[in-house]
Amino acid sequence: MSDTIPMDDPPGGDSRLSDSTRKCAACGESFSGPIHFQCLADNKTIRDSDRTSSDAARFTKGTLDDLPEEAAVHATDPTRLLNQYILVRQVGKGGMGAVWKAWDKKLTRWVAIKFLLVEESEAIERFGREAKLAARLRHPNIAAIYEVGEAPSKEAGQSIRHYLAMEYIDGRTLAECKLSRLQLLDLFVKVARAVDSAHKGGVVHRDLKPPNIMVTSDLWPYVMDFGVAKAIAIENSQSVSGTVVGTPAYMPPEQAEGRLSGIDGRSDVYSLGATMYAVLLGRPPFEGMSVMEILRKVSTEPVRPPRQVDPSFPADVEAIILKAMSWDPKDRYPTAGALADDIARHLEGRRPEITLAPHPRAERKGGGRALLVVGAALLLAVAGYFSWRKMPAHPPPAAPAANSGEQGPPSSDFTR
User: Fold this and answer.
1) With CB atoms 3.0 to 4.6 Å apart as the test, which of 164, 168, 227, 228 could cross-link to 110 if both were Cys?
2) pLDDT 10s digits, 182-221
3) Distance (Å) of CA 6 to CA 195, 271, 412
């Protein structure tokens, strides 16, 4: 059963368009979209079609086609060539395979290449279908997908390499960033609005977590793996009968129990709340010695309130997180946009009005509990895919809000 939202555009217009703006770090002017073209006249990753006539006049075809030195050293190595891409170096590895930084010779830009390891026809079909769905999304805070392709494999025992080419983000994951509380809350406003835009475009992420949010040196967040996380097993995700279940510490109860028909945009709202909990407090909302223990806690236990972990934690932010992580989907924020609105109200000094529903502590009976036990057993059976490499068990807590003026993390060339 599909867990995506219908693709129809909302009454207000095209869901793929966004009025989100950002301030250019180079000139200080506001602009929309992922790139401020007026400040990138010397950037070789920009194509002629994206330049103004005055910009284009200063360039020749030769300079645009020049290979960056990092890519040029591998340009004649047949093991580093993948169609029009030059594989420069591996920058990450997860359950689906390796992730490479690559140079696109046709469009003269950096990309990230992710490889699909499994060769089952059903997995390949789902991989392509979900990537096409995600490629329709357009938002300044969502990493773009460029292409789904295949090429002859040079690996023993593998005939075809299926890959995904996507926007290369030069930054750090949210799990690696050391930012103040106010800086993080500002990032979450943008992230929640990006997730809301994706929901309107027909995609439910199902694996939102700190490692799936990249942050650039100028504190601009990108949500990664839209439409892909539910199609294939990657990084910390678990695959059960071809369906990615997600990352236990960040998944909502309906997902932990395998009730796939109950997963919708509010499930992502829960995961956003769990991600806020983890990065603001320096620990995931649920911990355990095994996958089964974490799934049991997610399904049956209320999350420990943030102010019990840190008495200085703002009461309004605690209320926002607890509402997002309500056990029953109907008690959560109805949309990720509503969550973003309440975070923005807090940042503006206005107090959000939140009513929290009590957690149903009574032990539930019947099919839901049985599904949890069966799902946990299946997860354990494929636990070879499971890894917390990208997200430490106890990430560093956010710096005090008083230090909100500190600079963001230095630029890093690690992505995905």
Assistant:
1) 168
2) 999 999 999 999 999 999 988 889 889 999 999 999 999 9
3) 15, 21, 37
Q: Which residues pair with 22 in a beta bridge?
A: 31
100 and 88 in contact (C-beta within 8 Å)?
Answer: yes
Kindly provide the b/e burial profile for residues 15-26, where b requires at least 16 CB atoms within 10 angstroms of the residue's own CB: bbebeeebeeee
Neighbours of 83 (CB within 10 A): 16
Cα–Cα dist 200/14, whole Å: 9
Q: Which residues are catalytic?
A: 207
pTM for this one?
A: 0.70
The secondary structure of 47-75 as a DSSP string is: -GGGS-HHHHTT--HHHHHPPPHHHHTTT
Secondary structure class of 413 (helix, strand, coil): coil
- Which residue, among 265, 284, 266, has the nearest Cα to 274 in the 3D structure? 284
204 with 362: CB under 8 angstroms? no
Q: Evaluate whether 244 touches 233 at the Cβ level (below 8 Å).
A: yes
Cβ pair 414, 174 in contact under 8 A: no
